[in-house]
Design a protein that fits this description.
By secondary structure, this protein is an all-alpha fold. It is built from eight helices and two strands, in the order E-E-H-H-H-H-H-H-H-H. Helix 3 packs antiparallel against helix 8, helix 4 runs antiparallel to helix 7 and helix 7 runs antiparallel to helix 8.
């Protein structure tokens, strides 16, 4: 059976049952379990330090009113980070390459930030649609443009995460296929492509971490606008 490069992005199934939910819950196995002691080993200490660092970075743009979102934003950051990194392992599936899942994460959280602003400060939230000092003839056009830019924010969040991860996975598969195909005939060129593949893999690890951080950071910035 011939497989295309995009078959790696198809949702896996077993006996007709989709396995996406299992892939999404697997990162929970890597988190520290509850214990009656504060610190159990070095790994849990490292995990707690990393979670504390992530929380500080995400809460930095927010004032005290937004700190109640710390649990949601930090949990989302850890969830996306683990899924993106685990998806780089061989014979694994990355749920964040699915646009439907990314939109399902982005749209409710963006809507929650928007409704928070409309409830707490409706005048300020609606005032973002019309910059101060706008000439009267440009008011209808600017309101339309600002409303459109506001409504496409969740789409931009989902597409950005999907596109970056999908492009990285495709590049890795293309270069690895070229490395395997060139090895019998041109070993020297194959070693060069293998070196490029290793460098690209390191780059994709960085992209997986950065995209998870950017996704949650933009949500925190949208929240700051509305509180």
């Amino acid at each position: 059976m011939n497989l295309s490069f995009f078959d790696q992005f198809s949702s896996p199934s077993f006996l007709g049952i989709p396995l996406v939910l299992i892939a999404m819950t697997f990162p929970a196995l890597l988190l520290p379990s509850l214990d009656n002691r504060w610190i159990t080993n070095r790994l849990s200490t490292l995990q707690l330090w990393f979670i504390n660092l992530v929380t500080k970075q995400l809460m930095m743009p927010l004032d005290k009113k937004g700190h109640k979102w710390a649990l949601i934003l930090t949990s989302l950051m850890i969830f996306l980070l683990l899924i993106n990194l685990l998806g780089l392992l061989p014979y694994t599936f990355t749920p964040t390459t699915q646009l439907s899942m990314n939109l399902a994460l982005a749209f409710p959280l963006w809507l929650a930030t928007l409704l928070t602003g409309l409830r707490n400060q409706p005048s300020t939230s609606l005032g973002h649609l019309l910059p101060e000092g706008t000439p009267t003839p440009l008011i209808p056009a600017l309101i339309l443009i600002e409303t459109t830019s506001l409504l496409i924010r969740p789409l931009a969040l989902g597409v950005r995460l999907t596109a970056n991860l999908t492009a990285g996975h495709l590049l890795i598969q293309l270069i690895s296929t070229a490395t395997a195909a060139l090895f019998p005939t041109m070993p020297a060129v194959s070693l060069l492509t293998l070196l490029i593949l290793l460098l690209l893999t390191i780059l994709e690890v960085a992209v997986a971490m950065i995209q998870a951080y950017v996704f949650v950071l933009l949500l925190s910035l949208y929240l700051q606008e509305n509180i």
